[in-house]
Amino acid sequence: MKKTTGTDRSITSKWRPATQAVRGGTWRSEHGETSEALFLSSGYTYDDAQTVADRFAGEAHGMTYSRLQNPTVAMLEERIALMEGAEACRAQASGMAAMTTALLCQLSAGDHVVGARAAFGSCRWLLDHLCPRFGIEVSVIDSTDNAAWEAAIRPNTKVFFFETPANPTLDIVDLAHVCGLARAHGITSVVDNAFATSALQRPLDFGADVVAYSATKLMDGQGRVLAGAVCGTEQFINEVLLPFQRNTGPNLSPFNAWVVHKGLETLDLRARRQSENALEVGRFVEGRLSRGAGRVMHPGLPSHPRHAMAMQQMAMTGPIFAFDLNGGREAAFAFLDALELVDISNNIGDARSLLCHPASTTHANMGEEARLEMGIGQGMLRINVGLEDPLDVIEDLAQAFDRAGI
Fold first, then answer.
1. Which of the 8 DSSP states describes residue 364?
2. CATH code of the domain occupying 267-403
């Protein structure tokens, strides 16, 4: 199997993002295929015993076992790293596999991690339940308060962990400040960039050390497969993360890697169009709720408390925003049940418009007190605006508001 110019960093680093997304990380077999090949193999054969011994000893390049390397997965990893501006990347079985691996590969009993209060429910579970179970100390703070990050630092602090924009409150973290603070204290910053992807925001450009993804979301973009990824320096990926992954096995299947690889070719187009659509829909929802029926959380709108910062950090603000209905769960459910076009679903980043009720779905396991502390009330709804004509989405939301009496 031969590598093309798509893996030569001296060439690919000169390409612009749209080209990297289509051409980066492309290997070709002797057949010269244009579309990346799908290698459904768990193991590999060798010409002689010394070759396999050298590979397992790390003294020769080549495949050994698909829990360690697979050509299709490796192509995806190269492309994501290139788009992210990272030295290396390892794909994961899911977004939560990526978050878990990114944390546990570098934390031990007695270490301390500072995490953002506003986060995906399962990410908060890692902080609130899994880490303490293994003797890892955790402080959860308001990630939008720059002073809170420094105040939370202890002598044993090893990691800062946060999302920006956050799920589902759309909190925006000051990347340059928080990542700079981490580096100044020898702390590793781990940023969940799933709401934006490298098409809209590159945390490494602001000083982040590690970027983690649910590639299930915008990278695939069509609700087909589960996937995740972790990006960072070669030293972190190969010496810190890889030993953990090799021995615990949260690996991505070649088929899922191939699907995400194809999704990346249109990521920039989808992310930007969906951002435009979401902004148009967001303006409509804000106007509708301005009558006193609720509020909108959309970083692309001037009403967002960190709108200016979002504009500085992000090329566009993504397809996802949230809004809070004053009527609580009853109003939220009535609105969801009245939808005709937009689907009720807890996925995001999809080419289809989707709406969900976080308090009873993505954050249901947190408990009411923790949800309210995070800012998730019973009236909150999170919307992913897709590639449909935004006017059709707006008309559907309008009739749902009417039928729900909002």
1. G
2. 3.90.1150.10
